[in-house]
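For the sake of transparency, this paper describes our internal protein records without simplification. Because each token names a local backbone shape, the row as a whole describes the fold. One such record is reproduced below, unchanged from the form in which we store it:
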Amino acid sequence: MLATVLPWVVGALTLALALAAWRLLRGPDLPDRILALDTLYINALALLVALGLSFGHKHYFEVALLIGLLGFIGTVVLAKYLLRGDITE
């Protein structure tokens, strides 16, 4: 069952990545682009987990964990910059 569902999941996540990248490039203003970037890294994380399940390698999960950590930090920094205009306090 997993072998039949995973190609569909990978396809749907790839489409979601493409749509988020399109919104990132075309977003009308900065908050939309930050949200698109956040969605982009979450979709990349989910795609890596799906590929890790498909291929059976543990390295995909480690890279997904690293992307999740860096994506969270990046989103927090961009939101702080958007609110205050400066990153440091």
About this structure: The mean pLDDT is 91.
